């Protein structure tokens, strides 16, 4: 296990990058604490896999350093980093049995045969493949092969870090949940540093102690699931986390008031006078419908009943505003105003969150 430090790190696939846009991974400084479970979350092409491959040594960064427990490993080969990595698509030895595939990393390091047997049995139980240990990998389904690949990544207990690059893509939904639960159990039992790449917010939020959200080649926020939900530091985090994502509305903010489409609303706290592209961000969970004269006048477009609650899609001067309403709550025709719980209001300037002023 190791603390992993990224120092002034950036990477470009171009031989001579000039501008910031030439970098697939823009400059970042980040510490991954020893023994914590992280998720790298973001849309395809945002730099997640590039960052993971730099950590594992499959890529050397264009600039900056990577340190394990403060030791510079920037140019160290993968073999010296003591990393286990599981890729998006299964990598197995077809001519070997499932047992031999799982045992391979341990045999390669000269582990005691009795320990290998015990450990392989433990991992086989974890991935649900005890009954197929003596079968050749050839001919197994893609999800079975990926479980072997996952098990082989987890079989060693002495690694500095376990890296997972969207490992559950080819796994059926029910097994995804089980394997994710097993990964969390493994983390709690052995305390490995784990970094899990995914574009699925459910996977990220249920797996990780902290989620690292990436957008356009940069880290825009690292925090707990609660922090990402309540105080998104970037509009992308607000949009990407949650279902539906955060409502974003152009606003003119002055102090503790905002004007949206000519309508003034109270913010509950002061934000000064932010400049640039100013937006108000409020999650649907902090948004409610009511009748009366206060709030933003809206038109209800449709109501989606998703079982646990209702999602009310409304229109305010061409901007969609979503509301989460209780499952048993009544939505009447005269409920044509939206109000915000000021505890859930965030203000953004050029996509970055503006901290409220302390009184």
From TrEMBL:
The keyword ATP-binding applies. The keyword Membrane applies. GO terms for cellular component: ATP-binding cassette (ABC) transporter complex, substrate-binding subunit-containing. Keywords: ATP-binding, Cell membrane, Membrane, Nucleotide-binding, Transport. The lineage of its organism: Bacteria, Pseudomonadati, Pseudomonadota, Alphaproteobacteria, Rhodobacterales. Residues 4-241 form the ABC transporter domain. It comes from the Bacteria. One of its GO terms (molecular function) is ATP binding. Gene3D superfamilies: 2.40.50.100, Nucleic acid-binding proteins (2.40.50.140), P-loop containing nucleotide triphosphate hydrolases (3.40.50.300). This is Carbohydrate ABC transporter ATP-binding protein, CUT1 family (TC 3.A.1.1.-). Belongs to the ABC transporter superfamily.
């Amino acid at each position: 296990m190791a603390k992993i430090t990224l120092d002034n790190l950036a990477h470009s696939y171009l031989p001579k990058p000039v501008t910031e846009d030439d970098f697939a991974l823009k400059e970042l400084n980040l510490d991954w604490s020893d023994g914590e479970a992280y998720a790298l979350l973001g849309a395809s092409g945002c730099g997640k896999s590039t960052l993971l491959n730099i950590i594992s040594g499959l890529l050397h960064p264009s600039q900056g350093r990577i340190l394990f427990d403060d030791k510079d490993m920037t140019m160290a080969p993968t073999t010296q980093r003591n990393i286990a990595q599981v890729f998006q698509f299964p990598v197995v030895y077809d001519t070997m049995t499932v047992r031999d595939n799982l045992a391979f990393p341990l045999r390669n390091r000269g582990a005691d045969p009795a320990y290998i047997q015990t450990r392989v049995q433990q991992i086989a139980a974890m991935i649900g493949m005890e009954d197929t240990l003596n079968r050749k990998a050839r001919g197994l389904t893609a999800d079975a092969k990926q479980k072997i690949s996952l098990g082989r990544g987890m079989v060693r207990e002495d690694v500095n870090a376990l890296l997972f690059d969207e490992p559950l893509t080819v796994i059926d939904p029910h097994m995804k949940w089980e394997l994710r639960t097993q990964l969390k159990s493994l983390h709690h039992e052995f305390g490995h540093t784990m970094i899990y790449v995914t574009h699925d917010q459910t996977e990220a939020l249920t797996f990780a102690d902290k989620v690292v959200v990436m957008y356009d080649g940069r880290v825009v926020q690292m925090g707990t699931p609660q922090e990402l939900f309540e105080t998104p530091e970037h509009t992308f985090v607000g949009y990407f986390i949650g279902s539906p994502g955060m409502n974003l509305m152009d606003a003119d903010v002055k102090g503790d008031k905002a004007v949206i489409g000519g309508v003034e609303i109270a913010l509950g706290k002061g934000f000064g006078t932010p400049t640039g592209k100013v937006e108000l961000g409020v999650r649907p969970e902090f948004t409610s419908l009511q009748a009366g004269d206060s709030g933003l006048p809206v038109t209800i477009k449709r109501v989606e009943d998703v079982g646990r609650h209702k999602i009310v899609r409304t229109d305010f001067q061409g901007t969609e505003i979503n509301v989460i309403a209780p499952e048993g709550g009544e939505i009447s025709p005269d409920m044509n105003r939206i109000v915000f719980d000021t505890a859930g209001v965030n203000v953004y300037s050029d996509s970055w969150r503006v901290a409220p002023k302390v009184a």
